[in-house]
Amino acid sequence: MNPTILILGGTMEAAELARRLAPQPLRSITSLAGRTRNPANLDGDVRSGGFGGAEGLARYIEAEDVTLVVDATHPFATQISPNAAKAAELTARPIIRLERPAWQKTEGDRWHEVATLEDAASAIPSGARDMLALGRQHIAAFAARHDVHFVVRMIDPPEAPLDLASYELVLARPGKCGDEEVFLRERRITHIVCRNSGGTASYAKLKAARTLQIPVILIARPPQSFANAVGDIEAVLDFIEAHTGLRLA
Ligand code: NAP
């Protein structure tokens, strides 16, 4: 019987892995938390919604006869990864973590690196026009900053008005570097707050900030430890080959 690969997803890397596995003699299942309203189309099978903790995930792995697990969730998703590690242990399945490398500071960057959302909120100077490139669930940490004007950029509209004294909301995806420069100039942004997500999709605003010499308050990734972590899809394909005996073209 063909092996079954469970990809814990919600990231571009997970989508790319599913695409790479599509022509192979195996079944891939991408698991999504179910938060995004219109998730992009994915190759292979897709399931959505929480499993009910590590034990629920372990039951799912057994029920679907999963051969191995790829944890390709977002670096700031901190519950699902330990659950996946535990479920893999409970079911004695191999697991690999695919995590995009963090962005590294380069010459010309004016980064102020902080550990938490709260630290980021404290680090914004009074009177700033601050771009918040964060999801709606992270905005509450900035509610006490009545002395800052926020330009909040999100992909999905929030269900309720944001709990900020002074803000404007822009519903947009990250753009290319030139577009980001225009955005930062037009909105007269003096500071940016964002998370060190890594990857290419949202890096353009950091490049634009470097060009315009805008300070960036960058929230570091939460500390997580993985027994077996890799930074690129090729290494995951090697792992799948090693545990399935398949030769992936
Ligand atoms: P989280 O805090 O680590 O997970 C919370 C709970 O959501 C988990 O305990 C699990 O519920 C469920 N869950 C999370 N990822 C799942 C998945 N891939 N498949 C099925 N259930 C999942 O995660 P989060 O920060 O809320 O992120 C949710 C999803 O969005 C993740 O898949 C992540 O890759 C993606 N994402 C997150 C961020 C971010 O900033 N955190 C950004 C982009 C994309 P049960 O315990 O019931 O199984």
Summarize the structure.
With 249 residues, this protein is an alpha/beta fold. It is built from seven helices and twelve strands.
Main attributes?
six-stranded parallel β-sheet, binds NADP nicotinamide-adenine-dinucleotide phosphate, 249 residues, alpha/beta
Walkthrough of the structure:
The structure is a single chain. The chain has a 6-stranded parallel sheet with strand order 3-2-1-4-5-12, with helices on both faces. A 6-stranded parallel sheet has the order 6-11-10-7-8-9, covered by helices on one side. 29% of the residues lie in helices and 21% in strands. The two termini are 19 Å apart. The chain has helices at residues 12-21, 53-63, 80-91, 117-123, 177-186, 204-212, 233-244; strands at residues 4-8, 27-32, 45-48, 68-71, 95-98, 111-114, 129-132, 149-154, 167-171, 191-195, 216-219, 229-230. The radius of gyration is 20 Å and the shape is elongated. With 249 residues, the chain is α/β, with parallel strands linked by helices. The structure holds NADP nicotinamide-adenine-dinucleotide phosphate. The site of NADP nicotinamide-adenine-dinucleotide phosphate has 22 residues, from strand 2, helix 2 and helix 3.
